[in-house]
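tool=predict chain=A
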Amino acid sequence: MRIVVALGGNALLRRGEPMTAENQRANIRIATEQIAKIHPGNQLVIAHGNGPQVGLLSLQAAAYTAVSPYPLDVLGAETEGMIGYIIEQELGNLLDFEVPFATLLTQVEVDANDPAFKNPTKPIGPVYSKAEAEALAKEKGWAIAPDGDKFRRVVASPKPKRIFEIRPIKWLLDKGSIVICAGGGGIPTMYDENRKLRGIEAVIDKDLCSALLAEQLDAELLVIATDVSAAFIDFGKPTQKAIAQAHPDELERLGFAAGSMGPKVQAACDFARNTGKVAVIGSLSDIEAIVQGKAGTRVSTAKPGITYL
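tool=predict ok
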């Protein structure tokens, strides 16, 4: 079975942890221990988040003022390489020596007319006081937004249109390789007026990109691994209930928060609706059980309605 596993930020850095290389490696080791269990008999593609890593590079760039900060597309490429390296090494230490790996820098096309560019919402980089943020916004042309009692830069989060490296990903899978790609939603790119491809200052949602990746690879299963065991209604309240199975039309009507479960639900619904296959939202520690059909919220067009655990 061809499986795309989208690792959430908890696979790389748990909430509140210092952004050290040691912490990131330890968390990736936990993720790869689960992924190693589902490798036998399956073709695996691994996507991942990179928000904390891009944020760290932005902080480091802010501390070095001799040169202008590198653009977001370059920071995305840097983090894809770094995270892919650690995943390859940790997973390689668990699997047979003969299993091949490949990490691909993945360019993803977005539409210059995407409405997201008129309404930047994705926070990136360090926090600033209001005065600092307003000065930087004026100097650099940034959009800024409140973040608690501070301010941060915000950028657009356009929808992914095309994954440029989809053919080499397929070639590598056909040769038995485990492929790590589309990190952080891929490197956002678009064509300019001269039909030249260039990077842009944006962040593509990693779950939406993973759904597109799974669809274009004809994957049979999309696993969206996060830090909760399922999608819940009334999450965090005494009335919360975990969703066991849902038709995408019914699941979308529940209205999940845009800043947390919303993109994961949208990605799962898009994949299930467009392919007729199954997407599952669940815990990183349950990946083996998810693949066995024993855990997580399963999203499929096969059955109407919603059932709860």
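The chain has a mean pLDDT of 91. The CA atoms of residues 27 and 85 lie 14 Å apart.
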